Sequence to fold (348 residues):
Amino acid sequence: MNGEPVIDLRSDTVTRPTPAMRRAMLEAEVGDDVYGEDPTVNRLERRAAEILGKEAALFVPSGTMGNTIGVKIHTTHGQEVICDARCHIFNYELSMLAWFSGCLARPISTPDGILTWKQIEREIRPLAPHYAPTGLIALENTHNVAGGTVYPLEVLEEIRAGACERGLKIHLDGARIFNAAAACGRGVREIAAQADSVMFCLSKGLGAPVGSLLAGTREAMERGRLYRKRLGGGMRQAGVLAAAGLIALEEMPARLAEDHANARLLAEGCARISGIRVGPAATNIVMLDVSGSGMEAREISRRLKERGVLINPVNAVLLRAVTHYGVDRAACQRALETLAEVMAPAHA
Fold:
């Protein structure tokens, strides 16, 4: 590794709290949040709701818990949830759709993770004797495994209009909704308005150490608080975490464009390396198809790790690199040089 620091592109979840976050955590005013008495948590929830244009918000430990509660508040056991085939709630949340909500996924394959109303409408099932009725539409923006792709606002608006006409609710897995807003030049509130509930993470691109927010109607969030308790999410003096979340919410969205620029740098550089095909870097995620290299993704990942660059394999042929404020432009350039070295033997 030649004494160079490790370049960690596995995920934006590896970010460390900023000095301002650490100071806020040290000085946080706290109380018992299960009793609703933690003033810092209460401020964070109010501010998140205000930014998203929702009536209320709920602080939860993780995005998975936020999505689990978001699905549960809109559905009953035995219903279906329409979603993209590669979405996070279907593939990476330990089947909480079924385990906690008692719902079946109705996945739709897309090339880019972006569902359209036309695709959704033909999968809607009414109450009938032989199949599960549709209970919810779940969208993901940005879409993780599709490479950080962003829903055009007009697509969201069309889905919203169609769902309202059919009497269906929409839950938005907006883990990286602030990245989506930065990429499409629209306000977070404008995007969130197209869904009945929205989850977003503080602990990804916004850099807080722990936590996500779920936002929606006041009544839904009151029920969500009970589901949070059932899932073990009553965190007591959580103000020490919420304090960092407030800094993340207020100070970090403005710098996300820097991560997107670094992702484009990575994508453009990887596209010049023989054996790699690169998906479009819409935000801070770069998907690398290494099927033309003659090596499996996990082997490339292993060789990179030996040289101080961490990039995770998604499957046998895909690697995912994620930029964040802990990896600057110079580090991205070094990661590219290292990747070129690793790939060179395959094409010698």
